[in-house]
Amino acid sequence: MSGIVDLDVRFPRGRATVEQMQRASGLPAEEIRKITLCEEIPVLGPDETAWEIARDAAAAVLDRTGVDRAGIRHVLYAGSGVWDRPAWSPAAKIAHELGIDRAHCFEVGNFCNAGMTALQIACEKSRSHGGYVLVLLGDRLGRLVDYHDATTLPLFNAGDAGSAILVGPEGYAYRHLHAAMRTDASWADFWGGEQGPDGPSFRFQGGRKGLSTAYMENFEALAQQALDAIGRKRGDIAYLLINQGDRNIQSRLLTALGLAEEQSVFTYGRLGHMASSDTVICLQELAARERLRHGDLILVASSGMGFSFGVTALEYCAEGAR
User: Nearest-CA neighbor of 106 among 88, 119, 121, 91?
Assistant: First the structure.
């Protein structure tokens, strides 16, 4: 078996405020707040990079666990695929900075589903090859949102964070039980990118309806698929965590699975949507409640443009908790 030994999150110093978004877009502030659900969102400042924030999170994890760098056999960097530099490997750069010199380093691009996708790959690598795997989550979503384009309003809640997950074959706090994932490729062109003088930006591509229905159908089906794979039932779910992109979807999914809001984590009113790091933040905050019990089943729902969907089943292991 394998699972999450430890994790950490770091935030940039920069902030994007509703006032700034309103001035740039010309949209009413109240309309913007319906999307952001908070007054400001962490975003990369002009002198900040995603890879450095993810590196700092990783350094904290490695210092806390005391894991020998030589025992880390793979380093994965997950995100949208728009890195701080083109034609460059952030996974290799961070490994070098941290003194990890015997690992295979590579990137995983699946937008906001990339973190859980990378976790699945990491757990498979740890089980089959032994040793530890370092998963890094770093993205530049805040830099990709053009507040001057009012049609991108649904993305005004997107911000930036860096996080790190250490995966290992023993001593884990969360055992990785199963991951069920799939892509509804019919939504591939719903969002796209455009290269401008200041770099790439998101652009809304079409007015197709029904994305929220696609979210619910895929999440419910994948949740059931994950439960069937591990021989559990809906009544066994202790907690459900999800990317913080749409509060309504989260509430609807909880209801569909027969769960109460107390069985989840909501960060919308404080942070906005921190790409793949959302789920790491939610795991960290869930642990901080000090209510987790050994054997608790946690489902983690994730999604990303494309549109890809995933439900990951984790089991809390009290003896590995830090």
Answer: 91
Is domain 3-173 in CATH 3.30.428.10, yes or no? no
d(CA 194, CA 213): 27
Domain span(s) for CATH 3.40.47.10 in the chain: 3-173, 175-320
Q: At what angle do helices 277-288 and 114-129 cross, to 10 degrees?
A: 80
pLDDT in tens, 120-161: 999 999 999 889 999 999 999 999 999 999 999 999 999 999
- 246-302 confidence digits (pLDDT tens): 999 999 999 999 999 999 999 999 999 999 999 999 999 999 999 999 999 999 999
The DSSP bridge pattern shows strands 132-138 and 72-79 to be parallel
Phi, psi of 289 (to 5 degrees): -70, -20
Separation of alpha carbons 245 and 156, rounded Å: 10
Return the sign of the alpha-carbon dihedral for residues 230, 109, 37, 188: negative
- Kindly state the tokens that stand for 112: 């906001």
